[in-house]
């Protein structure tokens, strides 16, 4: 029994998985619609973008930084695709790549300013957030655009228009980045940089490279999430991330999934499960007819409770009692 | 014995403050040298010159009779000179074996970490060094200060450092913890692969493990004897005498 408990605490994702299953069971018991095919598609499509952005956010948070601009990068990326195809005559696939690489480039900018110019990432990415918001609203005149014709077919299907495309991409990204964080030098160095920057540098970890790289991953995933969302709703919407919505959802998912904002610890799977919990919560409340407003009450409590639990558990672990 | 490390007429100033006036120091191969002295005598500056953190204003540092310029901590480490800090160097969130291999991990298929291999090598290495910990899988945060220090030393030895600088390795440590480190130093001495400079305040412990003692006063070495030829009484008298002299001169102690 003790061993079971130890294993449970060692895998912090376990507690969030229990919460997700508990919520699921509750909603199944109160409404038949919850497990219907259409609703499962809904949940997967609501989970995926947040989970994808959360993966990047987890890496960044573990390395001790944050990116407040991922949400608007998600809004900018599909516009880049639209501009590239409709105004600059770029072919379909290069245009999609360009859209995603825009996120990579913005991530590099964030990383450069944070690491090389030594501006705290909270401030750097706050600046980027407003700047990119300005770029999106100015260039789009704050009007939505249509999905360009050359990508509005097979490419669109693969990139989010198909029912299960979101879930597929999310799973691939989660599995890949989970392996990166737990089984590669990159992941180990990410944890080391977030846990003890000076000690990591002393041991020969290239801290600047790791941090900038993680900013680039976060930016790339933000852009990708924006592209697949655009294909799903079949519109390029300047408010796709709801401004800060997608970013805050991703941070919430990461935090609920057990990632410490102080750096040094966190898991990709935890972040993805956090995104699932948030999606299930919102979807379920919607189904049983509770208005969307108390959702935020619950979200707030969930973040506070999980953070308190996190701090408490860490102290327990440090004390060697688990 | 041949000296592995020598400092010749080394001086270092920080603005108006002369930290080291003229230091001549020799470290023989396999030797354990104890460096004592009052606060402000320049011990930390001396160690920081040796580990490449600061650079001397004048004088020479010789490694195997060859003059070297230690531009950075990393460069000094490449030359085999490593400083072991008590808490700074390890990552609390990582396991013992990941800490042991941080910065030079073994990777295998698809560049994935060879955790099994690193775990085994870490376990073997710690065993041969006589470092006892519950498991190489535990997070470093769960270990005691002495165990952490021992792992930092073990890591340094594993990376083929030839000269270890231990700056106050026994500070803020209980008797049991301190004994652990002293045992480790004794083991290393017996194996004779590394030379060690220990800075400490506790003269009894210095006499216990060191081959030789150097006393640093006002930025220069004023006393240099093998531990076999000196005693706790003599070391204490030296420091007290110096203190009295400085008082009659009106210096700050």
Question: Topology of this structure?
Answer:
The complex is a heterodimer of chains A (322) and B (253).
Chain A: H1 2-10, H2 13-30, H3 37-62, H4 70-86, H5 92-116, H6 121-140, H7 154-161, H8 165-183, H9 185-195, H10 197-202, H11 207-233, H12 245-256, H13 268-287, H14 293-318
Helix pairs in contact in A: 2-13, 3-8, 3-9, 3-11, 3-12, 3-13, 4-5, 4-6, 4-11, 4-12, 5-6, 5-11, 7-11, 8-9, 9-11, 12-13
Chain B: E1 3-14, E2 17-28, E3 32-36, H1 43-50, E4 58-63, E5 66-68, H2 73-78, E6 81-84, H3 96-101, H4 115-128, H5 145-158, E7 163-167, H6 175-191, E8 195-199, H7 203-209, E9 212-217, E10 220-226, H8 232-249
Parallel strand pairs in B: 3-8, 3-9, 6-7, 7-8
Antiparallel strand pairs in B: 1-2, 1-4, 4-5, 9-10
Overview in brief:
Chain A is mainly α. Chain A has helices at 2-10, 13-30, 37-62, 70-86, 92-116, 121-140, 154-161, 165-183, 185-195, 197-202, 207-233, 245-256, 268-287, 293-318.
Low-confidence stretches of chain B: none
Summarize the main sheet of chain A.
Answer: none
Low-confidence blocks of residues of chain A: none
Distance between the termini of chain A: 13 Å
Q: Can you put this structure into words, describing what you see?
A:
The complex is a heterodimer of chains A (322) and B (253). With 322 residues, chain A is an all-alpha fold. Chain A has a single domain (14-313), classed as ABC transporter involved in vitamin B12 uptake, BtuC (Orthogonal Bundle), CATH 1.10.3470. Chain A is built from 14 helices and no strands. Chain A has helices spanning 2-10, 13-30, 37-62, 70-86, 92-116, 121-140, 154-161, 165-183, 185-195, 197-202, 207-233, 245-256, 268-287, 293-318. In chain A, α7 (154-161) packs across α11 (207-233). The two termini of chain A are 13 Å apart. The model of chain A has no long low-confidence stretch (mean pLDDT 89). By secondary structure, chain B is α/β, with parallel strands linked by helices. Chain B has one domain: P-loop containing nucleotide triphosphate hydrolases (Rossmann fold), CATH 3.40.50.300. Chain B has 8 helices and 10 strands. Chain B has helices spanning 43-50, 73-78, 96-101, 115-128, 145-158, 175-191, 203-209, 232-249; strands at 3-14, 17-28, 32-36, 58-63, 66-68, 81-84, 163-167, 195-199, 212-217, 220-226. Chain B has a 6-stranded mixed sheet, with helices on both faces. Chain B has a 4-stranded antiparallel sheet with strand order 2-1-4-5, covered by helices on one side. In chain B, α6 links the parallel β7 and β8 (195-199). The longest helix of chain B has 18 residues, at 232-249. The radius of gyration of chain B is 19 Å and the shape is globular. Chain B starts with a strand and ends with a helix. The mean pLDDT of chain B is 87. The chains are: A mainly alpha (322), B alpha/beta (253). Chain A binds chain B through residues 179, 183-185, 188-189, 191-192, 194-196, 198-200, 202-205, 264-265, 317-318, 320, and chain B through 73-74, 85, 88-94, 98, 102-105, 107, 111-113, 115, 139, 141-142. Chain A: It is found in: Cell membrane. Chain A: One of its GO terms (cellular component) is plasma membrane. Chain A: GO terms for molecular function: transmembrane transporter activity. Chain A: Keywords: Cell membrane, Membrane, Transmembrane, Transmembrane helix. Chain A: The chain crosses the membrane at residues 16-37, 43-61, 68-85, 91-115, 122-144, 164-181, 215-234, 240-261, 268-289, 295-313. Chain B: This is ABC transporter ATP-binding protein.
């Amino acid at each position: 029994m003790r061993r079971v408990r130890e294993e449970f605490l060692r895998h912090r994702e376990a507690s969030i998985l229990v919460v997700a299953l508990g919520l699921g069971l509750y909603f199944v018991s109160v409404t038949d619609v919850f497990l219907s095919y259409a609703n499962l598609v809904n949940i997967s499509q609501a989970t995926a973008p947040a989970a994808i952005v959360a993966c990047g956010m987890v890496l960044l948070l573990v390395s001790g930084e944050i990116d407040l601009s991922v949400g608007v990068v998600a809004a900018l990326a599909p516009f880049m695709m639209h501009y590239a195809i409709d105004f600059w005559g770029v072919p379909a696939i290069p245009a999609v790549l360009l859209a995603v690489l825009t996120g990579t480039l913005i991530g590099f900018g964030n990383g450069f300013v944070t690491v090389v110019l030594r501006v705290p990432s909270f401030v750097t990415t706050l600046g980027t957030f407003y700047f990119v918001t300005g770029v999106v609203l100015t260039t789009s005149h704050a009007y939505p655009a249509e999905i360009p014709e050359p990508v509005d077919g097979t490419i669109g299907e693969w990139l989010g228009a198909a029912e299960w495309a979101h879930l597929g991409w999310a799973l691939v990204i989660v599995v890949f980045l989970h392996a990166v964080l737990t089984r590669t030098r990159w992941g180990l160095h990410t944890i080391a940089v977030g846990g003890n920057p000076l000690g990591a540098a002393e041991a020969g970890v290239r801290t600047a490279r790791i941090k900038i790289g993680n900013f680039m991953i976060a930016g790339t995933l933000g852009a990708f999430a924006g592209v697949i969302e655009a294909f799903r709703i079949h519109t390029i919407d300047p408010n796709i991330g709801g401004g800060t919505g997608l970013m805050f959802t991703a941070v919430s998912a990461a935090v609920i999934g057990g990632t410490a904002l102080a750096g040094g610890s966190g898991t990709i799977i935890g972040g993805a499960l956090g995104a699932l919990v948030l999606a299930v919560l919102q979807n379920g409340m919607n189904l049983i007819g509770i208005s969307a407003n108390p959702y935020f009450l619950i979200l707030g409590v969930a973040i506070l409770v999980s953070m308190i639990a996190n701090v408490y558990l860490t102290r327990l672990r440090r004390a060697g009692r688990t | 014995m041949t000296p592995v490390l020598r400092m010749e007429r080394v001086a270092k100033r920080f603005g108006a403050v002369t930290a080291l006036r003229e230091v001549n120091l020799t470290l023989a191969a396999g030797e354990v040298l104890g460096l004592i002295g009052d606060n402000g005598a320049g011990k930390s500056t001396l160690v920081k010159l040796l580990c490449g953190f600061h650079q001397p204003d004048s004088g020479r540092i010789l490694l195997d009779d060859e003059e070297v310029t230690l531009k950075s901590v990393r460069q000094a480490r490449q030359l085999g000179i490593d400083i072991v800090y008590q808490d700074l160097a390890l990552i609390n969130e990582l396991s013992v074996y990941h800490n042991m291999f941080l910065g030079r991990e073994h990777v295998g298929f698809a560049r994935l970490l060879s955790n099994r291999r690193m775990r085994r090598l870490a376990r073997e290495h710690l065993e041969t060094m006589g470092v006892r910990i519950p498991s190489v899988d535990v997070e470093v945060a769960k270990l005691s200060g002495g165990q952490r220090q021992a792992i930092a030393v073990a890591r340094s030895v594993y990376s083929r450092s030839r000269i270890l600088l231990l700056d106050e390795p026994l500070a803020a440590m209980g008797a049991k913890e301190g004994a652990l480190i002293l045992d480790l130093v004794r083991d290393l001495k017996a194996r004779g692969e590394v030379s060690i400079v220990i800075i400490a305040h506790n003269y009894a412990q210095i006499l216990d493990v060191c081959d030789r003692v150097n006393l640093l006063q006002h930025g220069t070495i004023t006393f240099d004897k093998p531990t076999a030829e000196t005693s706790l009484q003599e070391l204490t008298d030296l420091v007290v005498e110096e203190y009295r002299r400085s008082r009659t001169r009106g210096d700050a102690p």
